[in-house]
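Structure in, sequence out. Go:
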């Protein structure tokens, strides 16, 4: 009788332990996507999550061909969540001129590790201009909404449609601001990377004074393709947002934000902190954005 009672107590205790482990942050789970994405991004995301005290998710990836006119296909990275988890934000990402989605693959696991659904599209043609990329970003936002409602999608009901971010590199970064200006309140943050302001060979005229979404603009002082004074810094100054950050690295060329860039650790950590603060309202990380610990890497750093 005593043995039976003891067995029941032990069984009950083991069940409680198993249940409690399901509720622990995914930082303790193994990532078993078996090399389906760049390990560098995963390492950056995990390190940032541990530093911030934020939940770390396992990351999964898939590719989709939506069959839309505005872009060719899309590479998706998403956090593996539990059935009772709240939906997470989504990031629509545009590649740069003559460059494909695979050149930004490190961003996928970096951002998804801390809970963001990342959608990086391929243009119809590598030479598609700024207007075409802005249209593609708008169409990608529609696709994100469709995937959230699609019962056969891995991200069904996993996306918070009130947390949509536009992100892009080079001409894709310029397209981010153009698309966000058009979409208005449907966009909750923008992150242009080494942005090129205009169509090829063009110059910027006008302003983005009506664009009030939180903005993180990342550039490099050594960028000879899109010198900051004529592109990133010029457009940053034109933004109407009260929550805008300008991060200009002292070293690094136009491809600083693509695979193989020299400062991914810093770039990824500050981008994640920016998203946690301005998309998710995590106030405790505000100093990570306003006063970065590695300030010596920047030629210019401006923050609220």
């Amino acid at each position: 009788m005593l043995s039976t009672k003891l067995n029941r107590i032990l069984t009950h205790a083991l069940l409680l332990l198993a249940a409690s482990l399901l509720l622990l942050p995914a930082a303790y789970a193994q990532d078993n996507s078996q090399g389906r994405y760049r390990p560098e991004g995963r390492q950056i995301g995990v390190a940032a999550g541990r530093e911030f005290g934020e939940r770390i998710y396992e990351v999964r990836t898939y590719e989709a061909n939506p069959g839309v006119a505005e872009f060719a296909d899309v590479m998706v990275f998403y956090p593996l969540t539990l059935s009772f988890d709240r939906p997470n934000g989504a990031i629509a990402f545009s590649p740069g001129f003559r460059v494909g989605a695979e050149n930004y693959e490190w961003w996928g696991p970096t951002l998804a590790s801390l809970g963001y659904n990342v959608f990086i599209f391929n243009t119809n043609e590598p030479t598609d201009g700024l207007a075409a990329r802005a249209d593609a970003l708008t169409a990608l936002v529609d696709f994100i909404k469709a995937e959230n409602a699609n019962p056969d999608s891995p991200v069904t009901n996993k996306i918070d449609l009130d947390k949509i971010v536009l992100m892009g590199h080079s001409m894709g970064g310029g397209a981010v601001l153009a698309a966000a200006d058009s979409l208005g309140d449907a966009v909750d943050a923008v992150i242009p990377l080494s942005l090129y302001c205009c169509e090829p060979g063009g110059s910027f005229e006008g302003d983005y004074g009506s664009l009030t979404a939180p903005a993180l603009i990342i550039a490099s002082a050594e960028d000879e393709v899109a010198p900051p004074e004529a592109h990133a810094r010029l457009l940053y100054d034109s933004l109407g947002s009260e929550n805008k950050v300008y991060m200009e690295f002292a070293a690094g060329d136009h491809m600083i934000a693509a695979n193989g860039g020299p400062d991914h650790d810093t770039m990824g950590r500050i981008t994640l902190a920016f998203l946690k603060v301005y998309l998710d309202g995590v106030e405790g990380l505000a100093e990570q954005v306003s006063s970065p610990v590695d300030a010596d890497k920047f030629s210019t750093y401006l923050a609220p």
